[in-house]
From TrEMBL:
It comes from Pseudomonas mangiferae. The keyword Membrane applies. Keywords: Membrane, Transmembrane, Transmembrane helix. The lineage of its organism: Bacteria, Pseudomonadati, Pseudomonadota, Gammaproteobacteria, Pseudomonadales. It comes from the Bacteria. It holds the Pfam family NnrS. The chain crosses the membrane at residues 20-43, 63-80, 114-133, 145-166, 178-199, 219-236, 242-259, 271-292, 304-325, 337-356, 362-382. This is NnrS family protein.
């Protein structure tokens, strides 16, 4: 049972009461601002300003490791409290972790020398893993150790990326970014497999959630890990026919899972169709990677952006909208504007993945504008929820 504070225990300011609050807010704001800065740089509008390593190095690192890891940290630091019954990180320790994340983001943009930046940035994920691992170990909750393993592997990928920045090794940077995206796919698969059937059942009032097929869950996770391993070793960053069966099988597994979860009623509930569409992008990403490795798709960045924009961005925005309501003591009815936000995010993915061959410059601006709109709407409508006390008067 969760060890709640007594009435005599002073609570920190609302923003520092649980991990989702600062990291969801900061991560969503950073998502919008970072894409704006990237668009300016792509069009020569950033002047002489250069982040550490240059704009391409910055973009390649900051979308998975800056934005993505902020949301992962916020979600896991919150979820581990429910999983273990142990109090989550809060107060000054949570503030210190958030400051560490922010300092690394500012260090990149300020052009901080590569080695001290690597030490600063590289400390964040191990700190998150320690905070989560401590709670899991306290109750010996072995069924969630795979989450800790994935987080540790993501920290290793960040270390590889940062080593590439320090040594000016573009190959290491690419390998780390590719591997991180497929590790995030593995984490999304694991968490999504737990919550999306349950959310669908609750949101539609069904009798029971769809029961997972353990073999399918293990196979999907294993294939995602193999995709990440292939990328981390450099084998998967160039087209290779031997990898076609791996990605084709991964796409088929994700498609089967999504089909099992589907119910026609999801289209009435934005908090549901947003999550299901995010997993549809995961299917497209794996299938597109199979086509690229088979030599049937010229641009290997398109499936990666299906993964990063459609799947990762879509799942993050959908989860932010739902988790923030639940953990601030509000009914699971998002503001109407979030339907626009979810649609904008999916339009961003469509523009970034399918339009570049037809409309190269315009596709990037359209995709960026829609991405920024989606996350700006979240910040605008949820910001107050995240920095004020729970609506139901409970701590947290």
């Amino acid at each position: 049972m969760l060890k709640l504070e007594t009435s005599r225990t002073p609570l920190p300011a609302p923003l520092w009461r649980l991990g989702f609050r600062p990291f969801f807010l900061a991560g969503a704001a950073f998502a919008a601002l970072a894409v704006f800065a990237w668009l300016l740089a792509l069009n020569g509008l950033s002047g002489s300003w250069q982040p550490t390593g240059g704009w391409l190095v910055w973009h390649r690192h900051e979308m998975p490791f800056g934005f993505g890891m902020a949301i992962v940290a916020g979600f896991l630091l919150t979820a581990v409290q429910n999983w273990t019954g142990q109090p989550g990180l809060r107060g000054r320790p949570l503030m210190a972790l958030a400051v560490l994340w922010l300092a690394a983001r500012l260090g990149w943009l300020a052009g901080m020398p590569a080695l001290p930046l690597a030490l600063l940035d590289g400390a964040f994920l191990p700190a998150v893993a320690w905070a989560i691992g401590r709670s899991l170990w306290a109750v010996r909750q072995r069924n969630n150790y795979p989450v800790l393993l994935l987080l540790s592997l993501l920290a290793a990928c960040d270390g590889l990326a940062l080593a590439g920045v320090v040594t000016d090794d573009a190959a290491w940077q690419r390998q780390a970014a590719f591997a991180a995206l497929w590790l995030l796919a593995a984490l999304m698969s694991m968490i999504g497999g737990r919550v999306i059937p349950f959310f669908t059942q609750r949101g539609l009032g069904l009798a029971a959630p769809v029961k997972p097929w353990p073999w399918l869950e293990r196979l999907t996770l294993g294939l995602s890990m193999l995709a990440a391993l292939a990328s981390a070793t450099g084998f998967g960053v160039l087209p290779h026919p031997w990898l076609v069966p791996l990605f084709a099988a991964l796409g088929a597994c994700q498609a089967l899972r999504l089909a099992r979860w589907y119910s026609p009623g999801i289209w009435r509930v934005p908090l549901l169709w947003s999550l299901h569409l995010a997993f549809a992008w995961l299917v497209l990403a794996a299938s597109g990677a199979a086509l690229w490795h088979a030599g049937l798709l010229d641009n290997g960045s398109l499936p990666l952006h299906a993964l990063g924009v459609g799947a990762m961005g879509g799942l993050i925005l959908g989860m932010l909208a739902r988790v923030s309501l639940g953990h601030t003591g509000r009914p699971l009815q998002p503001p109407a504007a979030m339907g626009v936000a979810f649609a904008a995010l999916n339009l961003a993915a469509l523009a970034r993945v399918f339009l570049p061959p037809l409309w190269p410059q315009g596709a990037l601006w359209l995709a960026g504008a829609c991405w920024m709109l989606g996350f700006a709407l979240f910040v605008g409508y949820y910001g107050r929820m995240l920095w004020t006390p729970r609506a139901d008067g409970m701590p947290g």
